[in-house]
Amino acid sequence: MTPRHAVAGIIVAAVSFVSVACGPPPAPDPPLPEIVEKAIAYHGGDLYERARMTMTISSLSGSFRIEATRNGGAFDFVVINPAQGERPERRVQLTNEGVTEWIDGVESELDEEGVRRATAFVNARVFFPLLPYTLKGDDVLFEDRGLDRWEGRDLHRMKVTFNPGTSNDADDAYTFWFDPETGRIEQFGYDFDNGLRYRRAISFERVNGVLFSDQDNYAVDGGKVPVDTLTPDYVASTMRLLSTVRISEVTVEPL
After folding, report:
1. What is the 3-state secondary structure (H, E, C) of the chain?
2. β-strands 153-162, 50-59: how paired?
3. Is the Cβ–Cβ distance between 199 and 7 less than 8 Å?
4. Is residue 15 within 8 Å of residue 30, measured between CB atoms?
5. Contacts 24+ apart (CB under 8 A), 100-109
6. What is the largest CA-CA distance in the chain?
């Protein structure tokens, strides 16, 4: 399984998808649907496997810094949440060897629950910027919904769920809408215990071969609403614009 997270909370709500590798090499990931393969190739392809990427992600809840490195099977993800007011800086590093946390530069002693929380902290912030590559994994289940009409365009709709028990939030479900010709992710949504989110790309930037996007983030809160509820009419009539998620200061260094 490839290391990854799946979602929420600047992305709020978090699904843990990182496999901390120990022991023998993992089995190859199962074949992906054609549209997902096309999407990965269009967004960055092999660069996801061998590159160091850095970026700042900002939204309503603040901003944080990501340093994500993969070199074949080795990965090294660092998330830095800067000090703000009385809140100290938090820095967490997740690698094949495990997870380490620093608060204001002082390493924390992590018990089992601390390891779980620190891992989820990284996962919840790495998954979205590295889409669609983060849809790879033997715990990911796909349901092809075919073409779906949005604002005068036909988009390829794909529902994504996860094997039970494989992460903290494996019961959450996602839906992605891809450009059927290129595979570009135009929008996606996900449900979780406290509501429903819909994210629509509003601008794209390709940095040294890898595609990133800023997104408007729409919300419904107050209890789980199935992701299958998402339609153009539902978004327009029921959801509110919660925030705009922006990616800046991006670097991509192939290895």
Report:
1. CCCCCCCCCCCCCCCCCCCCCCCCCCCCCCCCCHHHHHHHHHHCHHHHCEEEEEEEEEECCEEEEEEEEEECCEEEEEEEECCECCECCEEEEEECCEEEEEECCEECCCCHHHHHHHHHHHHHHHCHHHCCHHHCCCCEEEEEEEEEEECCEEEEEEEEEECCCCCCCCCCCEEEEECCCCCCEEEEEEEECCEEEEEEEEEEEEECCEEEEEEEEEEEECCCCCHHHCCHHHHHHHCEEEEEEEEEEEEEEEC
2. unpaired
3. no
4. no
5. none
6. 54
Q: How far apart are CA 230 and CA 2, in angstroms?
A: 29
Domains and CATH numbers, the chain: 34-254 (2.50.20)
Q: Tens digit of pLDDT for each residue in 8-39?
A: 332 333 333 444 334 455 566 678 999 999 99
Which tens digit of pLDDT belongs to each residue from 114-172? 999 999 899 889 999 999 999 998 889 999 999 999 999 999 999 999 886 545 555 68
Q: Which two tokens stand for residue 102?
A: 């620093």
Cβ-proximal residues to 48 (8 Å cutoff; 6+ apart), any chain = 40, 70, 130, 133, 210
Q: Which among 169, 167, 160, 159 has a CA at the least distance from the CA of 224?
A: 169
Q: Letter for the amino acid at 117?
A: R
Instruction: Please name which of 26, 167, 22, 27 lies closest in space to residue 97, comparing C-alpha atoms.
Output: 22
Question: How many CB atoms within 10 Å of residue 145?
Answer: 14
Q: 76 with 69: CB under 8 angstroms?
A: yes
> Which residue has tokens 């153009």?
232
Q: CA-to-CA distance for 162 and 173, rounded, in angstroms?
A: 8
Residue 223 phi/psi, 5-degree rounding, is 130, 150
